[in-house]
Write a structure and sequence with these properties.
It contains 10 helices and 8 strands. The chain is of the alpha/beta class. It folds into 2 domains: 140 residues, 3-Layer(aba) Sandwich (Rossmann fold), CATH 3.40.50; 81 residues.
Length: 228
């Protein structure tokens, strides 16, 4: 096969990320207090939990919301300010509290890929945090395209989001590979879009029989075998 483009997942593929939700919600409480709206922390958490449950229902049908849309729903339930400035500040707090650790050899791999292929990022997230992290670390320069599901309102495994990436890159499905750690979102989604999928296998048992690697560090060697 002739590979012209490599599409990469972010979380679990290039990096690990996590957030202390309690600290984040306490920061939101402080932000709202500073803007003239006081609310008990438990009441705030309950409203946010309800908004996140709504998000999961929306995601179950292959759609996505932005972080601003999620928290606008929560704040509206409380009668709190839902203006764009407040929601933007809540998103800024998320970026601050979300801690990310890039895997070893990520820059080395991205550099090698960018010299031979078009490279895209495709991440399921209500935030633009992956894009911000790549820009902050200078790794965004290795990408021809960065797409977060919140950009389009759809998410993997919906094949529409894969087709969007293919169109922007100017390649056919058979000319691309997608690399990720989720069987459902990445492997099944890419396959449904006609793209060859490469699984970064974790600890979970799986019936996946396609190409697999233990980490992103092994990707260039595998691609050289698939696309000599």
């Amino acid at each position: 096969m002739t590979v012209r483009a490599v599409i990469l997942d972010f979380g679990g593929t290039l990096a690990d990320g996590d957030i202390d939700w309690d600290e984040y919600h306490e920061a939101i409480q402080g932000l709202l207090r500073g803007r003239g709206f006081s609310v008990e922390l438990n009441r705030l958490k309950k409203a946010i939990a309800g908004a996140l449950e709504r998000l999961q229902r929306i995601r179950a049908r292959g759609d996505e919301l932005t972080l601003e849309e999620v928290y606008e729903h929560a704040l509206a339930k409380l009668g709190a300010p839902t203006d764009g400035e407040t929601l933007g500040m809540i998103h800024d707090l998320f970026r601050v509290h979300f801690k990310t650790t890039l895997y070893p050899c990520v820059e080395e791999v991205l550099r090698a890929l960018s010299e031979r292929y078009k490279v895209a990022l495709l991440s399921n997230t209500m935030s633009d945090t992956p894009r911000i992290i790549l820009q902050r670390t200078g790794l965004a320069d290795y990408f021809d395209l960065i797409v977060c599901s919140s950009d389009l309102g759809i998410r993997k495994p919906n094949p529409k989001i894969f087709r969007h990436v293919l169109e922007k890159l100017g390649v056919r499905p058979e000319e691309a590979v997608h690399v990720g750690d989720s069987i459902e979102a990445d492997m099944e989604g890419a396959s449904r879009a006609g793209i060859k999928a490469i699984w970064i296998r974790g600890q979970e048992a799986s019936s996946w029989t396609g190409p697999a690697i233990r980490s992103i560090c092994e990707l260039p060697d595998l691609l050289s075998k698939l696309d000599p």
